[in-house]
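Researcher: We plan to redesign the surface later, but first we want a full-length starting point. Tokens attached.
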């Protein structure tokens, strides 16, 4: 079994957010500079967190941060200045003490423009990575039906 196949995506925990491509995000040809796609992933994570009660501020109030330790981005089609793109952000149900998000970005014609993934770990207030889910996150997982 491939590593990614062992994780179960939870479709009901997918959110979609529309963004308008701004002039400052593009190169002289009006095409989005590749580095902004990671920023769009951030927009998707923040929207997901607000929608599902697991924002960075929610995590921080329990004394944790969740830094990104891995990110990947695969470009399919260019986004252009003025496009209204849709970012779909899905949490991946994993037994490991980390948060994995998968992203799909669609252009204004609903064509898949980009896919990606980020992996975040839990770091406590002392700056140490924790190897088990913090209690607040276990409770959140139970409430969202991610615990088996």
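Model: Full-length starting sequence:
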């Amino acid at each position: 079994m491939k590593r990614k196949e062992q994780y179960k995506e939870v479709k009901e925990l997918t959110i979609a957010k529309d963004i308008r491509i701004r002039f400052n995000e593009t190169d002289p040809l009006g095409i989005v500079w590749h580095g902004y796609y990671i920023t769009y992933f951030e927009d998707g994570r923040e929207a997901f967190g607000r929608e599902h009660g697991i924002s960075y501020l929610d995590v921080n109030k329990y004394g944790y941060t969740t830094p990104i330790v891995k990110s990947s981005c695969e470009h399919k089609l260019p986004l252009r200045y003025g496009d209204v793109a849709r970012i779909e952000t899905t949490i991946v149900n994993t037994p490991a003490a980390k948060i994995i998000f998968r992203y799909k970005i669609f252009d204004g014609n609903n064509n898949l423009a980009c896919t990606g993934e980020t992996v975040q770990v839990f770091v406590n207030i002392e700056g140490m990575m924790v190897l088990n889910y913090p209690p607040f996150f276990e409770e959140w997982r139970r409430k969202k039906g991610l615990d088996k």
